[in-house]
Amino acid sequence: MINHKTNVAIFASGAGSNAAKLIAYFSNHPHIHIQLIVCNKPNAGVISIASNNNIPHILIEKEQFFRGDAYTDILEEYQIHFIVLAGFLWKVPNLLIQHFPNKIINIHPSLLPKYGGKGMYGHFVHEAVLQHKETESGITIHYVNEEFDKGATIFQAKCPVFETDTPETLATRIHALEHLHFAPTIESVICK
Ligand code: GRF
Asked: 139-163, pLDDT tens digit by residue?
């Protein structure tokens, strides 16, 4: 599709609740278009979310992503300008980062630099937060660079952690924060 909007590809590996929120928020947006869903898991929920919203998706595999062109050709074919990671569990290869300088952002379910890095995703993050008896947690939206969860922070929001929390109750509170803040933050980055 040729248009003058910023075309965004959402990379996701899982249920896709954040992707669904982004798709809803940006439908009919004057400057931002969700052009493509990129997924690395054949049965991930995000694929049916893409189909239900008539958004094309591609399934990627390790060899081409890490040792090939990192799908840069296909992303060019789709005229992608900006990449949003929404629960994408593979590290982004340097080739892709170089192709999209300062144009890849990620959401992480903790207050980075705490509880980030390799292996810190999903319930592992919330378990670690509870184990360390933190009294607050939150979300971080940040640029993606060559190191896992270490790019410059764009936005953080906090929420309390209660003694009675389980990883599940904390995850629900964190997801609510993500759903509230991710789309407006992306909008402010792209439309600044
Ligand atoms: C979110 O908590 C996000 O922070 C993390 O993965 C989760 C994805 O959830 N990186 P969903 O697939 O968007 O529901």
From this structure: 999 999 988 888 999 999 999 999 9
Q: Mapping DSSP to helix (H, G, I), strand (E, B) and coil, where does residue 123 land?
A: helix
Residue of minimum CA distance from atom 2 in ligand 1: 109
Atom of ligand 1 lying closest to residue 17 CA: 14
Q: Which of 33, 108, 126, 142 is catalytic?
A: 108
Q: Which CATH superfamily is domain 6-190 in?
A: Formyl transferase, N-terminal domain (3.40.50.170)
* 81 in catalytic set: no
Cis geometry, peptide bond prior to residue 101 (ω within 30 degrees of 0): no
Token pair 């809803």 is found at 24
9 and 36 in contact (C-beta within 8 Å)? yes
| H helical segments located in the chain | 17-26, 45-52, 62, 72-77, 94-99, 122-131, 167-190
Burial status of residue 41 (CB atoms within 10 A of its CB: 0-12, 13-18, 19 or more): middle
Domain boundaries, the chain: 6-190
Q: How far apart are CA 151 and CA 53, in angstroms?
A: 31
From 178, 179, 180, mutation site for ligand 1 pocket: most ligand atoms within 8 A of C-beta: 178
Distance 12 CA to ligand 1 centre (A): 8
> Considering the entire predicted model, what is its pTM?
0.95
